[in-house]
Specification:
CATH class of the largest domain: Mainly Alpha
Radius of gyration: 31 Å
Number of domains: 3
Structural class: alpha+beta
CATH topology of the largest domain: hpI Integrase, Chain A
Strand order of the largest sheet: 1-2-3-4
CATH superfamily of the largest domain: Intergrase catalytic core
Shape: elongated
Order of helices and strands: HEEEEHHHHHHHHHEEHEHHHHHH
Distance between the termini: 94 Å
Largest sheet: 4 strands, antiparallel
Helix content: 40-55%
Number of strands: 7
Strand content: 5-15%
CATH architecture of the largest domain: Orthogonal Bundle
Number of helices: 17
Length: 406
């Protein structure tokens, strides 16, 4: 019979001899004493005519009584035709493919995201997803399994959070597919299963006089040059804030007669890349940025790390620094300014929507727009930049560019 005294004696003997000793056998269990003073519980058993060995833990962590209980559990498995070693390997494999582990892997690879976004992603997962399906193998989770935690978010009247959490899970499942741990993105099956989020208008100054004041405030901005340029460039191009701050030098072609910014489809979450014709004013900003950020990947890099894009809070923080409250103007609100004023100036709605990269729901229009109407859009973008110059100077006209009718 194994006793603590016999185990301590085996440990002393292993130290003295300087080699590993196996002592104190009892119904397949024994102690493995090491020269460094450690001792491990082992359980030897036969399965399908072959000897196998599994660990029952360390003697320092697992007392004799607990080790015997673990040994008896393993013996029951063998008696029931289950190989303890194979079961452990299967459990380990399932854990390696769990929703939580795959999600943590995916989060670790999101180096293009600013830390704040990653924290929010992790927070949503830890609060809404991991407690319910985090330990399950990702390939075994069904659409109904994923819908259950999303319904809990929806029941709390957090419709936008439910939508964003479903989209986040979709990205994780697509990563699982790419790494061979899932066959399909089950989040696709949940489209339409949740109540639509109520859209919120982004605060924006849409009176031409106020826009002129905003532009003059940009000129007087005191702070990081890249932030000042980002504010100006955002209004000139009216792309989404995420597209702006992740703009890469490799995406720009400003050397030819038709300068443009080609945003990859992956960044747009669309089927095709988005082309932004650049006005002479926009090109001037890109050239002015080169001495500041031209040596890195991003036009607007993080102030803390050049390897990351600008924080999603930088633009709004810049507006607050200029005295504009969150209920007056936001970074996303630059798109509202452009859409409102361009429509008021008589530009073709299709052109405006195409430049805003809004999804076309009308199939005939979508087919017509496949040609991208780049010449017309270039004319509009230059006229828009000229109009902003006029507003900055205190005017309210469209210098030059002809309006485009339907």
């Amino acid at each position: 019979m194994i006793t603590d005294q016999a185990i301590r004696s085996a440990i002393r003997e292993a130290r003295t001899l300087g080699r590993v000793l196996k002592r104190c056998y009892e119904r397949g269990m024994y102690i493995e004493a090491h020269p460094n003073g450690s001792a491990l519980w082992r359980f030897k058993y036969a399965f399908d005519g072959r000897e196998n060995l599994v660990s029952l833990g360390s003697y320092m962590d697992v007392p004799l009584k607990k080790a015997r209980e673990r040994r008896d559990d393993e013996r029951k498995l063998v008696a029931n035709g289950i190989d303890p070693s194979a079961q452990r390997k299967a459990a380990k494999a399932a854990q390696a493919n769990s929703v939580e582990l795959v999600a943590q892997e995916w989060l670790a690879k999101q180096t293009d995201l600013d830390p704040g976004t990653v924290r929010r992603h992790r927070g949503r997962l830890e609060k809404f997803v991991f407690p319910h399906i985090g330990r399950r193998p990702i390939a075994a989770v069904t659409p109904a399994d994923l819908l259950a935690p999303l319904r809990r978010i929806e029941a709390a009247a957090k419709l936008d959070t439910a939508k964003r959490t479903r989209e986040l899970c979709g990205a994780i499942w697509r990563y699982a597919i790419a790494t061979g741990r899932a066959d399909r993105d089950i989040s696709v099956d949940l489209k339409g299963a949740l109540a639509p989020a109520v859209s919120k208008n982004h605060a924006a100054l849409t009176e031409p006089k106020r826009v002129g004041e905003l532009l003059r405030a940009f000129d007087d901005y005191v702070g990081q040059p890249a932030t000042q340029y980002a504010l100006k460039f955002a209004l000139l191009t009216f792309v989404r804030p995420g597209e702006l701050r992740k703009a890469e030098w490799a995406e720009f072609d400003i050397e030819g007669l038709e300068p443009l910014w080609r945003i990859p489809a992956a960044k747009m979450k669309m089927r095709d890349a988005h082309i932004v014709p650049l006005s002479t004013q926009a090109v001037a900003i890109v050239r002015a940025l080169e001495p500041h950020t031209g040596g890195g990947k991003y036009l607007f890099p993080s102030l803390r790390s050049g390897g990351r894009p600008m924080s999603e809070n930088t633009i709004n923080a810049g507006l607050r620094r200029l005295g504009y409250g969150h209920d007056e103007q936001t970074g996303h609100g630059f798109r509202t300014i452009a859409s409102t004023l361009l429509n008021e100036l008589g530009w073709n709605t299709d052109l405006i929507e195409l430049q805003l990269a809004h999804k076309e729901r009308n199939k005939s229009r979508a087919s017509y727009n496949k040609a991208l109407r780049i010449i017309e859009r270039r004319t509009m973008m230059q006229a828009w930049a000229d109009h902003l110059d006029a507003l900055r100077a205190g005017g309210n006209v469209v210098p030059g560019g002809a309006r485009v009718s339907a």
